[in-house]
Specification:
Largest sheet: 9 strands, mixed
Number of domains: 2
CATH topology of the largest domain: Rossmann fold
Bound molecules: S-adenosylmethionine
CATH superfamily of the largest domain: Vaccinia Virus protein VP39
CATH class of the largest domain: Alpha Beta
Strand order of the largest sheet: 1-2-15-14-3-6-8-7-13
Strand content: 15-25%
Distance between the termini: 21 Å
Helix content: 25-40%
Order of helices and strands: EEHEEEHEHEEEEEHEEHEHEHH
Shape: globular
């Protein structure tokens, strides 16, 4: 039902009429496609990757196969990045199965040219498993680099409250908050100030089950790129990296295997440009085609199941 309303089919690339961004429908593991979409722009200096966790073509894979697949798109990513670049990867860890695929993924990365730089945890405000276990509220974000990319320290909106570290400077007794570069605390590698996306937020894109918060992606983009530079994201989904790049004046190259998500990205960008809104909140991207909000998730799921069975 939704596919006839999607502009892109596998292998296609949409050129932003303003000449800024590129949105594609393609496979992250397909080097020809990855090269094709990046051939039109300067090499990205930042990649933000959010792969499906252990699901490829909608199928749960044994961890070794998932890691083999990750090795391919990581290698493709490496081949298109600038020689001084940052790579961020969101990855889940299954606490009921020895935290896979996180440790296996880290080991695979240790065999590449990327240097490990940080292991960031973003704390969700809502969680699961509250009665029999510690409530699961974390999202893991790995930060790697090649060469020497730029990095800008990021501050939260949380004021510094701890005082009492005194130091004498030019004969004056100064207190730590006076010496700070900011009155607020740094983001550091534990992010506690970002709300996960839920249906009441303006940025919510109904039908996108794995949308990352815009604030998290903006933090990454601001810390690891400059205005005008290229940022890439091989797993576009709701287009969060695209929106962050549009807001912060970066060029974004992004694509998704699924034509529906590629279409959603095109529509989300157009909506932002027309209305300044970052998402649909209670509405959804196919409002003209589908009246009922509940139908959007069903249709996306159905289209994806049909594609999976035609692939396998
Ligand atoms: C976890 S979501 C990304 C969420 C995204 N960061 C956001 O904020 O909206 C993963 C996306 O990867 C896409 N995908 C799965 N396999 C892919 C592949 N081989 N190549 C490109 N995209 C793929 C899925 O269709 C899904 O939309």
């Amino acid at each position: 039902m939704l596919l006839p309303h999607c502009r892109l089919k596998p292998g296609d690339i949409w050129n932003d009429p303003t000449g800024k961004h590129l949105i594609g429908c393609g496979d992250a593991a397909d080097l020809d496609f990855v090269n094709k979409i990046h051939s039109q722009v300067p090499p990205p200096i930042l990649a933000i990757q959010d792969p499906p966790y252990n699901l490829v073509f909608g199928k749960q894979l044994p961890v070794a196969e998932f890691i083999d697949w990750c090795r391919k798109w990581i290698s493709n990513c490496h081949s298109v990045l600038n020689k001084n670049s940052a790579l961020y990867i969101w990855l889940g860890a299954n606490q009921n199965d020895h935290f896979q695929p996180l440790p296996q993924f880290m080991t695979m990365m240790s065999e590449t040219d990327f240097a490990s730089r940080s292991f960031i945890t973003m704390r969700n405000q809502r969680g699961y498993g509250t009665q029999q276990n510690w409530m699961a509220t974390r999202q893991e974000l790995l930060y790697y680099t090649i060469g020497k990319p730029k990095f800008k320290v990021s501050y939260t909106e949380i004021p510094k409250v701890l005082k009492g570290y005194y130091k004498e400077i030019a004969g004056q007794r100064t207190e730590n908050t006076e010496r700070s570069k900011s009155p607020n605390i740094r983001a550091g590698n534990v992010w506690i100030d970002i709300q996960q996306v839920f249906y009441r937020m303006e940025e919510n894109v109904n039908g996108c089950y794995a949308q990352k918060p815009l604030k998290a992606i903006e933090r990454i983009v601001e810390s690891s790129s400059n205005a005008g530079e290229t940022v890439t994201d091989f797993f576009a989904h709701s287009g969060t990296t695209l929106l962050a790049c549009e807001k912060l004046d970066r060029r974004c190259v992004t694509f998704d295997l699924d034509p529906i998500f590629a279409e959603i990205c095109i529509r989300r960008l157009a909506r932002f440009r027309e209305t300044g809104k970052t998402g649909w909140q209670l509405g959804h991207p196919f409002e003209k085609e589908l009246r009922n909000t509940n139908q959007i998730a069903e249709n996306i799921l159905l289209a994806s199941v049909n594609r999976t069975s035609s692939i396998s």
